[in-house]
């Protein structure tokens, strides 16, 4: 009977929760980010947004002219150049009106501001996007660049898969 009493006591200690005991840590203590931002961070974000809004609105005529120039270059392109490449080349050529990128660069060099505001960041891009006509300009630029990037990626995939489809007896001949 003594053995049975010992087993019952050990079982009770094992399965009975300890109410007054301190909880055991489950792992190493970790720092948890609270998500709180300082007033300076908000001020930088607002400044980037306003800067993006100003550069987008002031650069609208130049951006629209660059799009027109890109469309013109599609028609004037040579036989070895794709439409997307001609469009992007036309957009990159200098015009008499400054684009939003030109105004952004000028502001970074000539307007005193904190270094953090000189980066465009997400809020600056949003500011340029919501500026009058900004969605059209940014949409055209992003669409053209993404088409060019997807064509390069598709070409690389096609060329790498085509290498594997060449019959072994024809490899290296001619």
Commentary on this structure:
With 174 residues, this protein is an all-alpha fold. It has a domain at 39-158. 67% of the residues lie in helices and 0% in strands. It is elongated. The protein starts with a helix and ends in a 10-residue tail after the last helix. The model has no long low-confidence stretch (mean pLDDT 76).
What key attributes describe this structure?
174 residues; 0% strand; 8 helices
Report the total helices: 8
The helix/strand series, from N terminus to C terminus, equals HHHHHHHH
Shape label: elongated
Whole-number average pLDDT?
76
Structural class: mainly alpha
Largest sheet composition: none
In whole angstroms, the N-to-C terminal distance is 95 Å
* Residues in β-strands, percent: under 5%
Uncertain stretches of 5 or more adjacent residues: none
Number of DSSP strands?
A: 0
Rounded radius of gyration (Å)? 32 Å
Please state the oligomeric state of the protein chains shown: single chain
Helix content: 55-70%
Provide a compact summary of the structure.
By secondary structure, the chain is an all-alpha fold. The chain is 67% helix and 0% strand. It has a domain at 39-158.
């Amino acid at each position: 009977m003594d053995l049975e009493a010992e087993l019952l006591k050990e079982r009770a200690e094992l399965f009975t929760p300890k109410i007054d005991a301190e909880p055991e840590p489950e792992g190493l203590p970790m720092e948890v980010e609270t998500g709180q931002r300082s007033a300076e961070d908000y001020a930088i974000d607002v400044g980037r947004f306003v800067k993006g809004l100003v550069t987008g609105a002031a650069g609208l005529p130049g951006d629209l002219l660059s799009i027109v120039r890109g469309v013109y270059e599609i028609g004037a392109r040579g036989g070895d150049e794709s439409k997307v490449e001609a469009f992007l080349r036309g957009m990159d050529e200098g015009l008499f009106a400054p684009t939003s990128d030109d105004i952004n660069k000028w502001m970074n060099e000539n307007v005193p501001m904190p270094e953090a505001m000189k980066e465009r960041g997400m809020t600056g891009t949003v500011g340029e996007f919501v500026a009058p006509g900004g969605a059209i300009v940014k949409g055209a630029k992003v669409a053209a660049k993404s088409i060019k990037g997807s064509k390069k990626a598709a070409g690389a995939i096609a060329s790498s898969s085509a290498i594997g489809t060449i019959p072994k007896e024809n490899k290296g001949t001619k």
